[in-house]
Amino acid sequence: MKYLIYTLTCLVAAIPSLAESVALTPGALPGYVKEWKLSNPVELQLTGEVTSIDLASLKYLPESVVSLDLSGLTVKGLELRNSKYLGRTEFSDGELPPYALFSTNVREVKLPASLTVIGEAAFAETPLERVDFPSSLRYIGDRAFYLCKSLKTADLTTTSVSTIPEQCFYGCVSLADASFPPVLSSIGNRAFMKSAVTRMNIPGVSEIGEYAFAEMPALEEVTMRNGVKIGEGAFFGDGMLGQMSGMPANSPALAMANNGVRTLTGYIGGEVVDEGAYANLKVDTIVIHPSVREIRNNAFRNATGLKAVDVSERGGDVPVASEDAFAGIDVGKVYLSVAKGDEDAWRNAPVWKDFSITSEGTGIAGVVSDGVRISVTKGAGGIVIKSNVNIDDVAVYSMDGIVLYSAKPDSDTCVAGTFDEKELIVRIVAGGVTKIVKIL
Questions:
Q1: Distance from C-alpha of 72 to C-alpha of 68, rounded to nearest angstrom
Q2: Phi and psi for 431 in degrees, rounded to 5?
Q3: Helix residue ranges, H only, 287-409
Q4: What is the C-alpha to C-alpha distance for residues 212 and 147, in angstroms, rounded to an integer?
Q5: pTM (predicted TM-score)
Q6: Which of 22, 61, 164, 186 could make an SS bond with 65 (beta carbons 3.0 to 4.6 A apart)?
Q7: Least confident of 160-164, 320-324, 370-374
Q8: Other C-beta atoms lying within 10 Å of the C-beta of residue 381
Q9: Alpha carbon distance 403, 425 (integer Å)
Q10: Mean pLDDT in the chain?
């Protein structure tokens, strides 16, 4: 009889409860986690008060738990006196500690309404599909959502998060949409690498880490300000990336190699254009900033669509170029637009002397390809664009890379109007040729 009772008890314990709601007090959560390993709940709703370190026990939740509602929790900070957690002794109010739900089976989470910190790897390697970020959130730790392959959206617009840290959304292959608060200022190394985000709107960001947006197969559009500092390989291998507003201030190795961008709305910048920085670039026109002093091996390797290089703002200041800087390109068919009177400095320089050097006085506003002529002037009536062929597309950008005006004139003249900004960038497409002009 005793054996029968024991067997029935085990069977009852193995039957999962659909949902449980628990009001917690500090220190109680670890005990409940042990009980849930027997009851195997599917949904948990936790209310009351816990300490930050209590939440570290959530990583031991049974696989049955797929939904976790923490919205009614108050999380108190604490100081550990006789122990450490991952080398730390102090935790703040509202902190979800590092690795809190690491490798659990949780798919949906409602975070505490007063949450301030999401710790390192807190949700890493989970099948998380959705998470709503509270407005109180101000900090996210490294790898917080690393390899969350089912996560679909990340809306941080109401938070005060200023940094997306290293590998935060790395490998989130279902993450199609990510949006950010105005205070966002930096993106860490590999933060979105191998994710599925289609558009990045980051006009306030001033620094982008190494490979931050690399190998993103669905990335189509990036809006950022001019002058962003980027790390090695920041936009490497983004084959679908067709539109980029704003240009980085520097050109590190592999920065924009193997991507699909066809129009650059600013300068190639930085003291050094490093190895492979723009390899396999698809654009037909580039403008090299006066700051560039050296162009290294394979910097523009196989950028076979290149038709014009504008160096007119450099005068006779010729940057050193490696013999292989433009490897794979027939530079004899590429126009090098230099300032009038400085032709000889470029004709006598290694590598540059092999280009088709022209000095029409208006940079690429002269003959750019196949007889196409484009002129851009600024007067009291606004910016006037004229061409000897119909103009297909016109866009005016601020120096921060923000689109101020766009049109498809389908005529030989376009008047873009007046703008309050003192400096503008104008992009014109006509007769299959793209021209970039800076207006002062």
A1: 11
A2: 55, 35
A3: 343-347
A4: 15
A5: 0.83
A6: 61
A7: 370-374
A8: 11
A9: 10
A10: 90
